[in-house]
Every structure is written in C-alpha cells, then in structure tokens.
Amino acid sequence: MKTDTCATGMRKSGNPYTKYEGGGRRPAPSYDDSIRATGLPDAVVDQGKRSTGGQSARVVHKINFRVLPLPGTVLMHEGQRYIAVGSDLHKRRDGQIVPIILWESHCAQCGRPFQCWSGLRSGTLNRRCLDHRAPGKAVAGAGRKRVAKHLSKHGRRKKS
C-alpha cells in the first residue's frame, strides 16, 4: 500500500502542487530545479542506459493525473513517446495557480528532440518541433482522413 493512504485505504488529502505520485510530500520543483535534477539530454537519449534500481519507467497512455507525475514517467500518446522531465506552476488568466508538466519528445518529421507543456488533464500535445509545427496538418493517416472529411463539409477557414 502506498504511504499516502491511511489504514482504511482512503487517500489522505494532499495538495497537488506539492504532492508527487511517488508517495512522500516534497515541494514541487521549479522549472530550473527539475532541469538540474533530471538532466534534459539524459532524460530522453539515455533512458535505456541508466539503471532505474530494478524498476522500469512508468508508462501511461492518457494525460489524466491527480498529482504531478514523477520525472521519467513515459506517456505514449497517439503513437508518439513523451517523457516527463519536470514541472512548474502557471498562473491562469483568472488568477488561479495550476501545475503544468514539461514533456520531452522527438519531432515526428525530423526526429529532433523538443519540449512542450501540458496541464494535469490536458487533451493533446505537440507532435512536431518549432521548425516543423503545422497547425491543422495531421501527422498520422487517421488524422488526415478526419481533416479531409471536415474540409469537404465545412471548407477552409477564411483569413481575416
């Protein structure tokens, strides 16, 4: 049983800004602290080379977290691999402060590593680096089919 549950098995109340899924309480690192702690190139390039103490990296298929994922958590999203390398706090327009997750992946077009941010319960992530980012242009064949169907029904957007 995890350390953040009581004898009845119910989860103790915790603040998602300071609580990681690993168990004990510790402050959420800032962007700079998380980079220093994980080492960005090592987080993606040398993932297979590092020993993880007998445990394999946690793999998830959906961005639906209650607490911040541990650095090194792998997300498989639409056939692309993303690795959590850090987190930060973000102030929304309405003034609420929410945690955001820093992901690192490789561009679907050129293969170069890039970084992107998401919330704890976000829907999609960027699939390409800044040089090849193409809003509205699908990477996968299934996406191309949906785009073509939408364009045939609604047409292209008019520039204003």
SSE run? HHEEEEEH
Radius of gyration: 18 Å
- Alpha-beta content class: alpha+beta
Globular, elongated, flat, extended or rod-shaped: what is the shape? globular
* Ends distance: 57 Å
How many individual helices? Answer: 3
Strand order of the largest sheet: 1-2-3-4-5
What does this protein structure show overall?
This protein is 17% helix and 21% strand. It is an alpha+beta fold. It has a domain at 31-133. A five-stranded mixed beta sheet has the order 1-2-3-4-5. A hairpin with a 6-residue loop joins strand 4 (97-106) and strand 5. It is globular, with a radius of gyration of 18 Å. The protein starts with 30 loop residues before the first helix and ends in a 6-residue tail after the last helix. Mean pLDDT is 72; it is low at 31-52.
